[in-house]
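RECORD CONTENTS
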Amino acid sequence: MRTLWTALLGLLALLPAGAPAQELRGHGGPVRAVAVSPDGRQALTGSFDQSAILWNLASGSAEKVLRFHQGAINAAVAIAGLGFATGGEDGKVALWQGAAADPAKVFDGHKGPVAALALSPDGAQLASASWDETVRITSLADGAVRVLEGHKGPVNGVAFLPGGGLVSSGYDATLRIWPADGGVPVVMTVPAPLNGVVVAPDGEIAVAAGDGRLRLFGADGTGRAEIVIGETPLIALAISADGTTIAVGGLRGQVALVERRTRTIRATLIGPGLPVWSLAFLPDGRELLSGGADRLVRRWNAVTGEHIGTVVPRAGEDALAAFKGERGAEVFRACAACHTLTPADGNRAGPTLHGIFGRRIATAPGYAFSAALKDMDIVWTKETVSRLFEVGPNAYTPGTKMPEQTIGSAADRQALVDWLEKVTR
């Protein structure tokens, strides 16, 4: 099946160029990463399908399908004069030059999935944030590495400051500003886990939070503003090159264009209602690319907020609608972006949960599990699933690809496993 899918994706590069595509189609899974070249001519996208695709934005056609990572591609960044870098679930960072089939360089120091990448203003250093609780700053010239430690959980975002230094954001609900000279970082704690982070040309920091808030800080860590975007986690973030507009996307598919000067939402982009995992502006700030759970890269007019071409405004049938009012189904909504319930829907970022009870860990068919899970002596029961969410995946199943999350309420855990027992048979 993998060979057939690879061949089908490869054919995209042979299609004749025509009018610019309204959507970029080709990935077999949710689009987790989007980056645009400095000249605005190319984009590189990464997906849970373990592939990266290099696109010609003028024609909307795929130039090359790139395969290297053993796992989802979570991050991508453009590098002037080289090409692009990708960061994967396998903990590796790959540098791609042109349309070469293999990476020009590979950095493999992380012990967990790479969640975010950032390039220094001078183009000399690449920062990578990882679920191994570290940030690594790598010299592109000689590979020398500086490791930043301090986060107590997955590090989900990283960005360079214009005057030197670095900022990182983590699941531990902290934003950390690391001085360029290696001094003690400034640490800000907020009320919710943090995902992506970006920095404006003037040094202002914007960070996306799990409580649906966009928070702004000065380069010294001083809190400046809090903007309510929605009530669900914000999971994608981008800023225009001139720093005037911030794009922020959420778990339910909303994308807000925020005017940084006025701290207001200028426009809301109406997509298909599915999670938006990645965002990137073109260099002139007039167009925005979004990648989501529908496996597409959508193109938006970043001035008017209008979709370029037709968009279906709804996600279609809500698989959980039939369970309205059931607490277990409501708890499961946070899991639905990565897991399906029926064999027909198959695997997503995580394996299908169909038939989970009584199944040994890491044995669901057709899914590439972390090597660390395959030797564990766990059989999924209502008790073991409940325990997973009581202590968290990192503690219960070390080495897992699963995002760190817990369910603090024993009643909610019980409602979830009771409901799963009913719907996954």
